[in-house]
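Memo to structure team: turn this sequence into structure tokens by end of day. - J.P.
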Amino acid sequence: MIAERHYRMLLVSSGEQFIREIGALLQGSLYQTDNSRSASDARGKLLEKRYDIVIVNAPLSDESGWRLCVDASRNNGTIVGLFAASDSFDEMYARTSVQGVFVIHKPLSRNMVSQALSLMVCARERLRTVEKKAVKAESKLDEIRVVNKAKWMLIDHEGFSEAEAHHYVEKAAMDAGITKKLAAQIIIDSYLH
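Reply from structure team:
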């Protein structure tokens, strides 16, 4: 059974009808939506909360909308969709596609919006997987840094070879029933105090 994900979404549109129509598609527990009527209001909300998906209906009352999309796409893990009229589509696409913004032609059908949302959700899930791998890799690198620092302290202070220092850290972790990183940190702290 696949766990159901929930997506925090920001809808940005100067027109109330767009927000109502998109909101009707998002009924149910899958999406938690906030609405904005301008780019400046949307930027404030982006500073307050982290959104999985931001959808901008261009143009906005205070700007064309592409700058907001670029800004929103810089938030880690945020997928951005820009709905642009045919006469501005090429310019919007040129300005935002390199930032990973999905640009969708208006006028929109219900089916097109549904497909665009599905693609944005798929992209968000892919990013979630990449984020998890990055966190895991960073954690492993941090462990390596701490263990290496402890090994060098053992080499400097106790005259151990690198292999002996490595074995010492591993044995200390195993004997205490703790991680190598914690054992290494204890060793480091013992030389700093």
